[in-house]
Amino acid sequence: MTLQSIRYECGELSILDQLLLPHETAYERIGCVEDGWKAIRSMKVRGAPAIAIVGCLSLAVELHKREFPDTPSLSSFIKAQLTHLTTARPTAVNMGKSAAILIKFVDSMVEQNVSHEEIKVIKKIERMLPDDISDNMKLSEHGAKHIMGRIGQDKVTILTHCNTGSLATAGYGTALGVVRFSGEAVLINLNKVSKINITSSPPQEEVYCTETRPYNQGSRLTAYELMHDHVPSTLIADSMVGLVMRTRGISAVVVGADRVTRNGDTANKIGTYQIAVLAQHHGIPFYVAAPITCHDGGRLDGESIVIEERPPHELTCVAGVQLAPKGESGSFGCVVYTPSDMNCWNPAFDVTPNELITGGIITEHGVFTPHQLNDFHDKHDV
Ligand code: MRU
Known about the structure:
The chain has about 375 residues and is of the alpha/beta class. It contains 13 helices and 18 strands. Pathway: Amino-acid biosynthesis; L-methionine biosynthesis via salvage pathway; L-methionine from S-methyl-5-thio-alpha-D-ribose 1-phosphate: step 1/6.
């Protein structure tokens, strides 16, 4: 049984509530755009591709139920809802990009005088689910082949960060998809179909996944997925990455992306940047696995990416337990303090500069160096 974060059929949408994992598996119904917005904002559903798919499907659910008197009312409703959905979480490009594509589609229908009953926006949204899975599978194959070709040995040990698997996508995953595809059975097959020469004992795979503080997507979600799929894996705290790289023979780092800019700078889960610095120090190839839906071809570099800041309690509390000191009121001489908790800064993402992405950027079209991205973005109208 594969993990499914998004269930959708004929206008009915539900999501696996990721706040309850790994202890409880409960699906929550999404009945309208506002439900979708809240599920994204509260991180019941998270991961750049899943955010966009759930956001757009929440609109499809609402369109299934509503009737519109004419084309202008349908068009302005769709635009307003999509614009609203893009405000739920700002850093991942996927929702904004999907909104722009859908708005362009509706505008072109309006220009061609297509009647509102004939504007098949629901169908277009529904395609996002199978398209994401097939892109992820292509990307994963490209990534696994590239890594195996590069290291040229039969044991691959990958380090990954955050959660980029079935839970973060429509299925299969991006960086975790590469991990999946690098698994034993597939590698034996790869050995036959590609020119990679793995002749000795069957290839083995091992994965190190970071805990991914402060929100613990690694320990709560990636560890859950890896155990679910019986992938040999080891959980480490974020602070152990340097030691693991030095002592555990890491072949490659593979992470996902929330936004890849034209020059290859990549926004991803907080902590990615420091892992990339460590990878460079240890001479370990660092890969970003990012389907085109995660690329922001209109942005030159990572400087201007808006980094989402999450509330302090997500840093100070774990599973409802307060770890940092709570503020107390008091006085010092004549100065009276009002109660305030420990001051926190809680950015959810960081930007890894292109020069640290030494392995490449893995897409469904192949693996690119950051410097090849400009041409690639032009060619594919990213
Ligand atoms: O805050 P999150 O959990 O939504 O962050 C997720 C990540 O940073 C992932 O690495 C990224 O979205 C890619 S998911 C395929």
